[in-house]
From TrEMBL:
It comes from the Eukaryota. Pathway: Amino-acid degradation; 4-aminobutanoate degradation. Its EC number is 1.2.1.16. Keywords: Oxidoreductase. The active site is at 271. This is Succinate-semialdehyde dehydrogenase. Belongs to the aldehyde dehydrogenase family. Pfam families: Aldedh. The lineage of its organism: Eukaryota, Fungi, Fungi incertae sedis, Mucoromycota, Glomeromycotina. PANTHER family: SUCCINATE-SEMIALDEHYDE DEHYDROGENASE, MITOCHONDRIAL. One of its GO terms (biological process) is gamma-aminobutyric acid catabolic process. Transmembrane segments: none annotated.
Amino acid sequence: MNQPFSTQVEKVEIPKLKDSSLLRQNAFINGEWVKSKSGKTYSVFDPANNNEIGKVPEMNAEDTKEAIKAARESYDNWANQTAKYRHDLLHKWYSLMMDNHEDLAIILTLENGKPLKEAVGEIKYGASFIEWFAEEARRTYGDVIPAPIKNSKFIVQKHPVGVVGIITPWNFPNAMITRKLGAALAAGCTAVVKPSDCTPFSALALAELAVRAGFPKGVINVVTTEQHTKEVGLELTTNPDVKKVSFTGSTTVGKLLMQQCSSTLKKISLELGGNAPFIVFDDANVDAAIEGLIASKFRASGQTCVCANRIYVQSSIYAEFASRLADKVSGFKVGSGFDSQTTLGPLINEKAIDKVTRHIEDAVAKGAEILVGGVRRSGNFFDPTVLTSVSADAIISSEETFGPVAALYKFDKDEEVIKLANNTTVGLAGYFYSRDVGRCWKVADALEVGMVGVNTGMVSNPESPFGGVKESGIGREGSKYGIDEYLNIKFINFGGL
């Protein structure tokens, strides 16, 4: 069953942009499209074929200081605008994203590789955060506290924190920016965005649309770099004019950024790694559980922080579930994201391929069986894989794979699987399927994660808080809680009244 999946990457035609000016090849500072101070650039490649898409500036700490300066100088004016004014600009930006969603999706697929249909979904998902926070801009309510002292009034106000540094990953190069930047702008903050070196064009396209929406100069700045990522990050985390840093990425890097932010006691939001359990109880709707697992596990070729990593199936239905899942996965098509038949695109780079290979080889060496897939092919493509009889001491059991590998484990009792699910240092998302209402409440309460999907493989939308516990991070994004991450609370005691 584990035969290579077919691809036709070279023969796929890449659609042309309706508006080629959205593919920007300069950074964006203080309302201007700029080159790096050194004049250096680096190339960005299509992960499906390693062809060059274009070049962007290779910026360093000095360039980043300029971006921070621009954000600081624009901050007072932006923070003092009315919430209605910020709402109107954000909503106009949202409309421009929706009007240009096809071009934005093409750019995203070019640099990230995910299927175009998925890319369109991400663009609309990303835009929905701008729409949401446009509305939340007008709802940053304070409080009046009943004073325990006569002739006094106790007032609580909320104020923007200041300049924000935003560092985003490559796996959702549009939505990871909008989810952070939308909240920051709605709160009255200005920002410097450092997108992944692999996927800068999505960020720059958003900046171009922000110009068209009418955002004032300096409110949004985008710094691009490949070789100087560490020093740009250090500047954002230690520059005293930056009052908050928001980062999505690995737990290792998140810990380093947190240490660096401590030098100026910045506010910080961290959305870090996961190792999501996905539990299928014997009373589950198996068809629904398989569909939910596929949505969670194989979206973006398994390169999501909330994708299922450890799949626990109760013993009585384990064989049936494994066989039916393998049948489904064997029907996937791996190839270019621009092929309408493609189910899974490429992984982002060779390093990602190496990690998936290492996890599978280790699992097999420790007794796992490959039901389907397991084949590494040329370029950045890897066949979607289903493993059974995975050992608890396999690397994949404790380390996030970030690739298209479904590792199945067998369990017998509820208490056993809850203990297994929680036996990790991280806690971002968890999923389970059951039709027993009592069991659902019990397991949902017991899972040590920030988000739980009960009879669903999806947990993210603008209305709900996104974030984890333990070493999966600090803070929440999206929802009514997301904007609070960019606000300071001020208490005012009016005495002598």
